[in-house]
Amino acid sequence: MIKYIGSKRALVPTILRVIESFTGAESVVDFFSGTSRVGHALKQRGYRVIANDLMTYAHTLGLCYVQADLDDVLDDAERLLAEFRRLPGKPGYFTETFCVRSRFFQPKNGERIDAIRDAIAARGLEPELEAVLLVALMEAADRVDSTTGLQMAYLKQWAPRASNDLELRMPAVLPRPAAGKGAAHQLEACDAADRLTADVAFIDPPYNQHSYLGNYHVWESLVRWDKPEVYGIACKRIDCRERKSDFNSRKKAHDKLRDFLDRVRCPHLVVSFNNEGYIAQRDMESMLARHGRVITLEQDYKRYVGAQIGIHNLKGERVGKVSHLRNKELFYVVVPHDAPENLEATLRQQREQLLFG
């Protein structure tokens, strides 16, 4: 899957253990699905997963990794990928924007991305199959980019992987799970909370000022293929200036999350939040206590690679110092007030294991 600052790769085992402690739960709504890494892992364990994310690239990842089932797409996807692998490069919008005006990719790969993306668009494919092909292209591009994982900027010197040739691979699409076919939606969070329900809600909202649209604008443009006007050295989409979320506002984040939580219609909640986020632990626990008994788990992990490298100015010179190299991910588990006592005991045991190994 693509490099992603919000990825839960290292935290997936903890998330699975928590959700598997809910006896009888068969379905999960992932309200802020991002790369769908969590949804993919839950689907692999047999859950029916409902993914939701407002970003088009994230919705496409959800269609591929949550909604699409392997038997339905494999033959057509393999045939088309084989065809697209033979396409010669053809420079277009992507090459001009992300290889000439900026340096996210080398032109040889930008030209092939242009050619393959045009070919996908020309086919008029049904959504699940198209999503699998778009994810294959997105992941191929991610393997030859020249960034630290964020698209706020590109590296001053080419990353070694940027010299490799673009290679299309079949994404790791899963068979249909035992609990039933999943679904992927592209709704604003509160609308999703009003419309989507399951046994468990997994909630991983933005926690600070950084917009996922700004961080991953290249993927948004690649998937939407709307060839937007861009600005700045990083050639961001012009709508990065306009599409703002209250979750990214220090003043508005608390009220926005409280409104969202009040709309959620799932009996069990698992909320993932960072200790650097706008909402402090005691405030989050107070907010969630309105919905059931709250147990808080903590897991220590490395900060994303860009934070470890430090802050650089436009000349590539380091400015300031790296303040710290590790964060804490906080998992707030909310169970109904009438939940069995042994469930709370199980969760508290997991907390002790996380805190003390």
Structure description:
The chain is an alpha/beta fold and 357 residues long. It folds into two domains: 1-68 and 180-205 and 246-357, Vaccinia Virus protein VP39 (Rossmann fold); 70-173 and 213-243, no CATH class. Helix content is 41%, strand content 13%. It has 14 helices and nine strands. The protein has helices at residues 12-20, 37-44, 56-67, 70-85, 93-100, 107-123, 127-142, 189-195, 212-215, 217-224, 253-263, 281-288, 305-309, 341-356; strands at residues 27-30, 48-52, 183-185, 200-203, 230-231, 236-237, 268-274, 293-302, 326-335. The strands form two sheets. It has a seven-stranded mixed sheet, with helices on both faces. A two-stranded antiparallel sheet has the order 5-6. β1 (27-30), α2 and β2 (48-52) form a beta-alpha-beta unit. The protein is globular, with a radius of gyration of 21 Å.
